[in-house]
Amino acid sequence: MTLVEVGCELCGVRHYRVRFRRxxxxxxTSPGWRPERIVExxxxxxxxxxxxxxxxxxLSPEGAAASDASIRELLRALRPQPPGRLLVVGPAASVGExxxxxxxxxxxxxxxxxxxxxxxxxxxxxxxxxxxxxPYPKAWLVTLRQALTxxxxxxxxxxxxxxxxxxxxxxxxYYARRTLTTLLEAAGFxxxxxxxxxxxxxxxxxARRARQMAxxxxxxxxxxxxxxxxxxxxxxxxxxxxxARTLRQTVRDIPPGVADEVILVDDASQDDTxxxxxxxxxxxxxxxxxxxYGANQKTCFAxxxxxxxxxxxxxxxxxxxxxxxxxxxxxxxxxxxxxxxFGSRMMKGGALEGGMPLWKHNANILLTALMNVAFHTYLTExxxxxxxYSARALRTVRFEQNSDNFVFDTEIIVxxxxxxxxxxxxxxxxxxxxxxxxxxxxxxxGYGVGILWAVCRACGHRWGWRQRWLTPRxxxx
Length: 477
Ligand SMILES: [Zn+2]
Known about the structure:
Blueprint: E1 3-4, E2 16-21, E3 37-41, E4 47-49, E5 52-53, H1 68-78, E6 85-89, H2 93-101, E7 105-109, E8 122-128, H3 137-147, E9 148-158, E10 173-174, H4 177-186, E11 189-195, E12 203-209, H5 214-220, E13 234-240, H6 244-252, E14 261-266, H7 273-280, E15 283-286, H8 293-306, E16 311-315, H9 326-334, E17 340-344, H10 350-353, H11 358-375, E18 386-390, H12 391-396, H13 408-418, E19 423-427, H14 441-462
Parallel strand pairs: 6-7, 6-8, 8-9, 13-14, 13-16, 14-15, 17-19
Antiparallel strand pairs: 1-5, 2-3, 3-4, 4-10, 9-12, 11-12, 16-18, 17-18
Helix pairs in contact: 1-2, 6-7, 11-14, 13-14
The structure holds zinc ion.
Zinc ion binds near residues 10, 11 and 44.
């Protein structure tokens, strides 16, 4: 075994200060090695052992096993996902066994280098107590990213550094929340959550393939034909309030054969909305009194689920959105690529052309940027009134606990993200005219404040102030 000096994995420099000399009282790894010096990168703070054994092999101790706490944390993240293909890297039989009981099909490899460089094919990868023994953790993570489907999830469990002794066993590298996050981002992942118990449990991180890597996906992903899907019941829901003038046009533009049922929920309109809907042969649910846009959506979704929908599309009946693109909107859900898809007015710069007022356009961009920072996402808009959800996603989130007004739209996205659902966007065009501008300046300010409050609560939830409305329903089918 020869030892070599190595540089920082994160930033590549060899500019460090020695933090610990002589190995702590730790169990040596398989070739009988213990770190002589553990150093801290002066540029980025990454902690690693140098020199290290030169071998390109995993220096794992015998029988590194996942603790019960880390398995519970992984299952909490896995449970809301539709079961798919799971890759377990390393000796994590207990994780595999637990995931198999949830319906996942499991493959395992001892080491990512042994993995065939095949197409993206895993829906989730578990790397449990492995990264800290890897010779080149970044290269490992890049290999794993290539093996994930475009929306695949990565779960990493690793000991969190504390005071010396740094760990029970000799490691090549040592992680804090910040350095692990930086490493994952450098390898092309977007962080979804990072947790560790304050009394020194391991660090558990959930990450997704980063969206900026979309251009790389085309290179990395071999075209694999989508498996045939059983036919799904598509229900279009129309949350309506005084929509008599535009309802007919909206329903007429739904492409024939796309919707199995169209449900209109009338929020105590004062015009002929119900009469028009009756003429059009829609399923009608009436609120006895006006309850608000969010409450309307709650009735829409509950009714659609009760009617056996597999896929629910919401279209505003104000004719602002073009129902002709429903097939494109639902395609990612049909193909199993997403759990919810939003039509975005902001993706192709069409919002201003479509007549969106400038103040609304700019406020939209600001709020969206804030939320992307808060939630580590890359959505271009959070306020779209044209959306598709899988029934499974709707059953997973507690949408009935949301606001009864416009903030509902944002809250449900936050809930979907908290439940690790996969969100997609497609660009759409909108038409703005008088009856289409659904929210005016005064209420819009209150709306903005409501969104900021939702963001605060979501951040609080992530940092331990657990809230019921953000907790996914795990018993959903
Ligand atoms: Zn560094």
